[in-house]
Amino acid sequence: MLTPSVAQERAAALIDLARKAGADAADAIYSGSSSEGVQVRLGKLEDIERSESEHLDLRVFVGRRSASIGSSDLSDAALRELAARAVDMARAAPEDQYAGLAPENLLHRAAPVDLDLEDSAEPSPQDLLARALAAEDAARAVAGVTNSEGGSASLARRVMALVTSHGFAGAYGGTSHGISAVVIAGEGDGMQRDYGWRSARHLADLPAPEEIGQLAGDRAVRRLKPGRLKSGPLPVVFDPRVGGSLIGHLTGAMSGNAIARRASFLLDRDGAQLFKPGTTIVDDPLRPRGLSSRPFDGEGLAVARRELVADGNLTGWLMDSAAARQLGGTPTGHAVRGAGGSPGVGTSNLHLAAGTASPEELMSDIADGVYVTELIGHGVNGVTGDYSRGASGFRIVNGKIAGPVAEFTVAGNLIDMFATLTPANDLEWHRGINVPTIRVEGMTIAGD
Q: What residues does the Metalloprotease TldD/E N-terminal domain cover (predicted)?
């Protein structure tokens, strides 16, 4: 895997090859990663893995025609062939009036921002093994845990570089440390499975492996002997580890690409009040040590903290350059790039701001409700906002969390759900989308 500076140089060289092959404009992305992980089960080493990968992706434009191609062979001969093939492909592609690089005047020109994404710590395989064993041992020590699917510890490093033919060049690297444990409680048909997991840019920001293991064991045991729910309308409280998915559905519908295709349940709602007054949802790509922080977007544009929802109101769409051209707007710095192809739209370090009530206070007036800790399936219609997911969790009886429940469905419409959404004050900061405990009124439960 290349260093950020060398990766940037390699991407720049590919741009030069594309221009020589006849491209009017181009951008190139280098992505490289290395990872090492240790997996244990029942107190014994089960697997040690190490992997490395690197890839260069090239997008070229010939007039309004474009093509994308990539290679993991970074030799000079392979990249010359890559550039020539990309230009030939673009000449044969149909015209797209919205195709093109990002506006040059919006490119990120400031000095690099230090987001503290790289950790110098280099845990040895023995260190990773010790952490994995400690996490699993703590989980297995919880009374009621009967089996284990394993504990793991990992370290990953990543480098990303982007160069465009119209003046942008940037690169950055980052690390990720992880610990997890997955265990089973109970016996026979009554077995229940759950996990504990945490990831952080810096090793020092991870909880102790024993804490992760204890969490996994406690969660599995709490799920034993689940009951069933009767069908009907109930208030639903979403645990922070699943509540973030609701905010993810919102941002997916805010994508300018979805709006341009008229395939979003938020059509004609720009600026509308969707949430209760006081509700704030923030996208912050410049958060130090954030799991998805980045100094620039996938087209080389500047990124910034932005309130996507302010005082309950939508503040506009999330647009890459193509969507902005279609909608007659300005790209918002939310372009993301995967392996090959054109940019998409995504967020970074998204969070729903905390409310004022504790989770206990949030539930105190619920005589009969459900606390959801797991969501199953993908029953969300991005065009209509209709929502239906399998779930499990716990009953709420007279304001208190009671026994476990399983095999039920929660359903509603996202517009209605957002209108009654209330956040608690227990915001957590260790996921891609960070949310506190969330209460939603009047959802339909399908159980017995």
A: 26-90
Structure tokens at 286: 């410049």
pLDDT band at 72 (very low <50, low <70, confident <90, very high): very high
392: left (phi over 0), alpha (psi -120 to 50) or beta: beta
Strands 281-283 and 306-310: antiparallel
| Averaged pLDDT, 176-193 | 96
Instruction: State the virtual CA torsion across 333, 336, 337, 338 in degrees, nearest 10.
Output: 180
Element (H, E) at 335: strand 335-336
* Greatest distance between any 2 Cα atoms in the chain: 72
**224 contacts 185 by C-beta, under 8 angstroms:** yes
Residues composing the chain = 448
Using one digit for the tens of pLDDT, what is the confidence trace for 212-241?
Answer: 999 999 999 999 999 999 999 999 999 999
Per-domain boundaries in the chain? 4-221, 226-448
- In the CATH scheme, what is the code of domain 4-221? 3.30.2290.10
Percent of the chain with pLDDT over 70: 100
d(CA 201, CA 344): 24
Residue indicated by tokens 């941002």: 251
CA 40 remoteness from chain centre: 26
